[in-house]
Amino acid sequence: MKPLTRAIVWGGLLAGTGDLVFALSYYGMQLKVFQGVAGGLIGREAALAGGPATFALGVLLHYAIALVWAAIFCVVALRLPALLRNAAAAGLAYGFVVYFGMNNVVLPLSALHTPFWPPRIDAAAIAAHCFLFGFPIGLAARRVLQGGPVR
Question: pTM (2 decimals)?
Fold first, then answer.
């Protein structure tokens, strides 16, 4: 597997898993947590009516989205090596970007049609995106793309 692909896969899987654990612990161990993710594709009512199948679809979509965000970071980091040299800080900042990108661009454009404005501020979710989503993407990118130790 090529280094870029490996960095994307590792970053996406680590970020997706960190965010999954956060979501289930913060919002509760309920099917509707990831049915809400599926709702972005098929609509809220259809997702909630789908039972375990739409929960599984939501988990699959959640990881697909994490892989896309990891791919964006890795491709940009190849063009801006400072992101890899400062992977921890870049990853933390990227988590912040991802939080606001999801809540203010992706979700309003999805089948959920959440409001674009005002921005949704949830300190715990922002912190989780920084530390459990962006941070592992940054470190995985650095580790794989530079081949050096994670610092």
Answer: 0.92
